[in-house]
Specification:
- It is a single chain.
- The protein is α/β, with parallel strands linked by helices.
- The chain has three domains: about 20-135, Rossmann fold (3-Layer(aba) Sandwich), CATH 3.40.50.300; about 145-205, Helicase, Ruva Protein, domain 3 (Orthogonal Bundle); about 210-340, Zinc Finger, Delta Prime, domain 3, CATH 1.20.272.
- It is built from 16 helices and five strands.
- The chain has helices at about 30-50, 65-70, 85-90, 95-105, 125-130, 145-160, 165-175, 180-190, 200-205, 210-225, 230-245, 250-270, 275-280, 285-300, 300-320, 325-340, and strands at about 20-25, 50-55, 80-85, 110-115, 135.
- A five-stranded parallel sheet has the order 2-3-4-1-5, sandwiched between helices.
- Helix 10 crosses helix 12 and helix 12 (about 250-270) runs antiparallel to helix 15 (about 300-320).
- The N and C termini lie far apart (about 75 Å).
Length: about 350
């Protein structure tokens, strides 16, 4: 039997094929685990005819049930796949790991055992599996990798193109989790005419904003009001966010508190002689956002900022404890903060 080396994979195809007898698919990226299993099944189908898959939940499965399924012959199928989910929990049971080490040393030829799990404890079993299969780590892609994946996946699987800018915005809003991205791509592909590409405008209209973008929408509004050096625009912006944009009061208060925390941290860094460019990188601010943030920071007294941070936390605490109205508390805080702008 040919040997397949242990493989760590993010997006490339793993060393899984017709001669794989035992393999491990582990890590937080669910789509990759599903894809690797599908590819393995297709390879076995091509070699042996239709295969049948049997699944066991690791927390509940007995050792005998899994081994009996692997060793028994199916009447109609020439090959079978036996999947053990939550494999880390399965192998924690008394004697199970040792039994699986013995099995991996002499697996059956008519079945393939797949351990699937979010986590995996390495040990002697890995070396034995490497001789008859592979250990595949399925890690999340970095955002830049996920954007490239979206472009390729959209054309290959969903039959349409997606503009690079649209792919980038999709990842920015949903994150790099591939199953979520693939599900959203399937919906978007149905919304464009045949031969047309998915554009950034469509993403902006139909894909929900991430919590980071929602936070910045609130924080940008408050910063814009503060930059005018008047309490009126700040209160007006807060009212607009609550009444027109439909933001929850508690979220607006949280985002304002987070903005004050960032300003306070930036003021401390500036006081320690850290350049503004480095401060902006630490705050993850670029371009117009950096200019707006730094413009307000220059006009706020560091001592007033420290007091403002304590103030907004107290306003939040009082509102959650039933003292006063949250919206009123937020408006009053914004007025006091605006009064400290030089």
């Amino acid at each position: 039997m040919a040997r397949s080396t242990t493989t760590t994979s993010k997006s490339k195809a793993a060393a899984l094929g017709v001669e794989t007898r035992v393999c491990v698919l582990y890590g937080p990226e669910q789509w990759l685990k599903s894809r690797h299993l599908d590819d393995l099944r297709k390879a076995l189908d091509a070699a042996h005819g239709e295969t049948e898959t049997f699944s066991f939940e690791g927390k509940m499965a007995n050792l005998a049930d899994v081994l009996d399924e692997l060793r028994s012959y199916a009447l109609m199928q020439h090959h079978k796949i036996v999947v053990v989910d939550q494999a880390d929990e399965y192998l924690k049971k008394d004697g199970f790991r040792q039994a699986m080490e013995r099995y991996a040393g002499a697996p059956v030829d008519h079945g393939t055992l797949v351990f699937r799990s979010d986590t995996w404890n390495k040990g002697k079993l890995d070396k034995l599996i490497a001789k008859v299969g592979a250990v595949v780590k399925c890690e999340p892609l970095k955002p830049v990798q996920a954007k490239g994946w979206v472009v390729k996946r959209c054309r290959a699987e969903h039959g349409c193109a997606i503009e690079p800018g649209a792919a980038g915005l999709l990842v920015d809003r949903l994150g790099p989790e591939l199953m979520t991205l693939d599900s959203e791509l399937a919906k978007l592909a149905l919304m464009v005419e045949k031969g047309q590409a998915i554009e950034r405008g469509l993403i902006e209209q139909v894909v929900g904003k991430s919590s980071d973008e929602k936070a910045w929408e609130v924080q940008e509004a408050v910063l814009s009001g503060l930059s005018s050096r008047s309490a009126g625009p700040v209160v007006e912006k807060v009212r607009e966010l609550l009444d027109l944009a439909g933001h929850a009061e508690v979220l607006v208060m949280y985002f304002v508190a987070d903005l004050v925390r960032k300003l306070n941290t930036a003021a401390l860094m500036k006081g320690a002689g850290v350049p503004e460019g480095e401060i902006a990188r630490a705050m993850k601010l670029w371009g117009p956002r950096q200019q707006l943030f730094m413009g307000v920071l220059r006009r706020l007294d560091p001592k007033a900022l420290a007091a403002a941070f304590d103030d907004v936390l107290e306003a939040d605490r009082r509102a959650k404890s039933g003292f006063g109205n949250l919206t009123r508390n937020l408006e009053c805080f914004c007025v006091r903060l605006a009064d400290n702008v030089k």
